[in-house]
Amino acid sequence: LVRGAVELAIHACHHAPAVDMSAAKLSERLATLQYLTRPSAGKRTGRNIGVHANVATDLEAVHAPIPVKMADYRRVAAPPRLIVDRFELRRWQPAQPDFADPASVRTFYAAAEAFVCAAVGAARVHVFDHTLRTSGVSSLNAADGASAAGAVLRVHGDYTADSAPTRLAQLAAAGAITVEPAPSRFAFVNVWRSVDQQQPVLSHPLALCRPRSIDYARDTWSYHMHFEDRVGRNLAIEAKAGHEWGYYPRMTADEALLFFAFDSSAADGDVGVVHTAFDDPAIDGAGVPRRSVELRTVALWD
Q1: CA dist 275 to 57, 199, 217, 228, Å?
Q2: 269 DSSP 8-state letter
Q3: How many CB atoms are closer than 10 A to CB 63?
Q4: 3-state helix, strand, coil in the chain (%, to 5)
Q5: Are 209 and 273 in contact (CB under 8 A)?
Q6: What residues are paired with 44 via a beta bridge?
Q7: Cβ neighbours of residue 159 closer than 8 Å, sequence gap 6 or more
Q8: What is the H or E stretch that residue 29 is in?
Q9: Rounded CA gap, 169 and 214, in Å?
Q10: Strand pairing class (245-247; 206-209)
Q11: What is the C-alpha to C-alpha distance for residues 172 and 204, in angstroms, rounded to an integer?
Q12: Residue 283 · residue 119 · CB < 8 Å
């Protein structure tokens, strides 16, 4: 399986056009993404998170670097739209929060809830947590809401068809969200934005894959995350030549990416938007770390 991924990478290198950085070619360039490979016999894909007793010994996470065509979503003829493509870049200028101040964070959450509610047309939206990320930080999980984790350089989706309803029930049981009255539909919607007021994103931007290009039934499987108090599962994706990748270069703090991480009404096995941070050959090495926040929300329809 690892050999197959490597052969795909070699094939892509042999057949991909040379990277042309001229203005005429800026709508697409070549980038390398880290895809997971299928687990070996007797193993599951995933990792243990933290030091605790709930450790699994059968987890592995083997990555293969795969060259892909990376579109500039700012320049494509048909930019992604939230309802059709499950993600979209929009203007959003909330007050800059102090993440060490709970009152400031609550105000930020309220602004995000209104932003998502208007965007997706839900009856109500709850923000249930957030993660600050700074490129160059080694840990992928923050200790608290005021400290930063690193950028996730791994192609993934945030939920599986089974783990999303489980996570909804866990959040309701913990009192983090209110699900009464019982919703007819629910969706996990992420809001991703820069928190750097001085610089655009110049390192490890977020790339997103159009769901229409993924065969979710055949090409995805579970990635297990063993926390101390629970086992989460998100989505691993097998590398395929037809995946349609793109990103929004040089995002600023007055922009936000909304994307569906899961939608209970989605058809054709579409679990959620697959995404990853990546090394952008056009801008990485500028010496400015990426500073971003991702807000996790659940949208509910009556």
Answers
A1: 27, 23, 17, 26
A2: T
A3: 15
A4: 20, 35, 45
A5: yes
A6: 59
A7: 167, 188, 233, 234, 235, 261, 262, 271, 272
A8: strand 28-36
A9: 28
A10: antiparallel
A11: 34
A12: no
pLDDT digits (tens, 9 = 90+) for 191-238: 999 999 999 999 999 999 999 999 999 999 999 999 888 888 999 999
Give, for 107, the enclosing helix (H) or strand (E): helix 102-120
Type of residue at 207:
A
Q: How far apart are CA 43 and CA 45, in angstroms?
A: 7
Tokens coding 43? 């193993």
Residue appearing with tokens 């989706």? 157
CA angle 52, 55, 60 (to 5 degrees): 135
CA pair distance 186, 171, nearest whole angstrom: 13
Contact 287, 168 (CB under 8 A): no
Backbone angles phi, psi at 154, to 5 degrees: -150, 130
- Given a contact cutoff of 8 angstroms between Cβ atoms, the answer to whether 116 and 122 are in contact is yes
Question: Which tens digits make up the pLDDT trace of 145-174?
Answer: 555 678 899 999 999 999 999 999 999 999
Determine the residue type at 200: P
Radius of gyration over every alpha carbon of the chain, rounded to an integer in angstroms: 19
* Selection from 206, 293, 215, 258 nearest residue 31 by Cα: 206
Report whether 230 contacts 264 (CB < 8 A).
Answer: no
Structure-block tokens of residue 259: 């994307």
